[in-house]
Amino acid sequence: MRNKILISRNCIEVQCDRNDLETQKLMTNIYPIHTNRIKTSYKMSIHKVPEVLKLLRGIDVNNIHTAPPQVQKYFYKELAIRSNVEDLIKNGPRESCKVNEHLTLMRHQQLGREIAKYQDRYAFFYDTRTGKTPLSLAIMYDDIVANPSHKWLVVCPLILIENAWLPDAAKFIPEIKIVNCHASTPAKRIERINSDANIYVTNTESFVKYRKHFDKLHLTGCIVDESSDMKSPKSKVSKELVDFAQTLKRFYLLSGTPAPNGEQEYYMQLKAVDYYGIQQSYTQFKEHYFVNISYNPQFEKLVLRPDKKDELFSLIKQYALYIDKEDVLTTPGRTFHEVEFEMPPELKKHYNKLKNELYIELGDGLQITAPSTAAKLNKLNQVTSGFIIDTQAVKENKFYDNNLAEWYMLDDYRFKMLQDLLNRDNIRNEQVLIWANYRKEFEIIQSILGEQCRCIYGGTTITEKNEAIKLFKEGKIQYLVANPASADKGLTLTNAHISVYFSLNWSYELFKQSMERIYADISKQPKHCDYYVMIAKGTIDRILYSDVLQGKGEANYAILNHLKGGNI
């Protein structure tokens, strides 16, 4: 064999000659080759040091003392990581949960804190309400106290900056200087990025836009909150964060729903944590672990291969720990109530017409069509709420400034049903979180509920969102109406214990996130939580609720269960 072994911070590389068939054959044991081309360079995770040394040099724990000191260092470091992390996950934390006079962690949070002392790059897939933010603040605090010049970056959804990270940092680690990098103008954002601090907090979109400025800070580490935003290998956010991660010594992911639409969504998150831990391209990854069962060539429906399940489970477990709130918190319990009702006859006719013939007639010869399956499903969803949006009119108004009607009220029955629901004896005097999807729904609900209501949806500014949340938390308004996509992550609204789903969407991730807004540990949510789901009989409502939103999460349950710790 004529090969070289090169070791760097996050990578071990084996180099050989084209004619070194012996090395190439040996490497197939730890490096899956997905090409017919002759390989002369094999880059792998730094965690593979013991396996590579054993395979190519016959070096193990019994004779590692014969290796150069630098090689010994990497070898023993990896063995220490494996043994300590395995022991922590099995037996629980060993040290005090007290971080400082302001912050004492729960055992499952302390477990993550201690894992981070060994793992510089890791994923904490902690369920909602299990305290990902305090855990992360503790990790950064430990590092900054030991190394006062170190700097960290937190990348999170915009709404979480002022509703989670900044208030929690002020509460738990007030002595650490933290900067909110979000500002009203680009110049102010750059000014804040360039200011002196130990922790910088930015929203995901701004990170992508101002990446080059963050690069100049010489950061020690980064924490990505809601890492499920990295689920697409094609997105700019995913690509930038994966690339950025390779420049840092420490890198951590946080998410309660890391792969809401299927296990393939772990790929980019794993690449960020350990770039060389997965040798495959995304295409190769899919082909290796999944089968596409879609009959439509335009869409992909991936299902995990049964014979590859354990292999994928083991791969993910190397880099991640999952904590289920029901295992670590005392929760108040919750009940889902189906509020089922018949659509008015005329509206049902409209619904069936659209369902069967792809268009609706509104009189005077006006037709609203649904040219695609997706458009059809959206239109059906609108009709169940009693109105329909003319998408073509919306486009023409946008581009040609025409004064065309963009929506048509078909029947206000569903809004009356909502009023009746809110007037029930057990709901009438309570604060209620209402979930809806379309702008027109928000406008109508706002007009019905008046000053006791505020809305959060796509057209709401961040200032308006924060103000609405503040008023609701303080009990100054009775109703908060929100779009799941605009208030989906990290918000704590446990002052309410009742949620109403006025209408539903197709995202299991958003549905799960929305459920958790009012649900928490009994110390924060002492009341039993009730969820009322409005369902029009015989319509897409039933399909959405029964088949999509209740069943979608099962795909990832086995993996998340596999990632759990032991004695937490």
Could you describe the 3D structure shown?
The chain has 568 residues and is α/β, with parallel strands linked by helices. The chain folds into 3 domains: 67 residues, no CATH class; 234 residues, Rossmann fold, CATH 3.40.50.10810; 159 residues, P-loop containing nucleotide triphosphate hydrolases (Rossmann fold, 3-Layer(aba) Sandwich). Helices cover 41% and strands 17% of the residues. The chain contains 23 helices and 22 strands. The strands form 6 sheets. It has a 7-stranded parallel beta sheet with strand order 6-7-5-8-9-4-12, with helices on both faces. Strands 13-22-21-18-20-19 form a 6-stranded parallel beta sheet, sandwiched between helices. α10 links the parallel β8 and β9. α4 crosses α5, α10 packs parallel to α11 and α15 runs antiparallel to α16. The radius of gyration is 27 Å and the shape is globular. The model has no long low-confidence stretch (mean pLDDT 88).
C-alpha Rg, in Å? 27 Å
How many helical elements?
A: 23
Structural class: alpha/beta
The proportion of residues in beta strands is 15-25%
CATH superfamily of the largest domain: Tandem AAA-ATPase domain
Mean of pLDDT: 88
Shape: globular
How many β-strand stretches?
22
Strand order of the largest sheet: 6-7-5-8-9-4-12
CATH architecture of the largest domain: 3-Layer(aba) Sandwich
CATH class of the largest domain: Alpha Beta
Low-pLDDT sequence parts: none
Number of domains: 3
Summarize the amount of helix as a percent range. Answer: 40-55%
Distance between the ends: 47 Å
Give me the CATH fold name of the largest domain: Rossmann fold
| Oligomeric organization of the protein chains | single chain
Main sheet properties? 7 strands, parallel
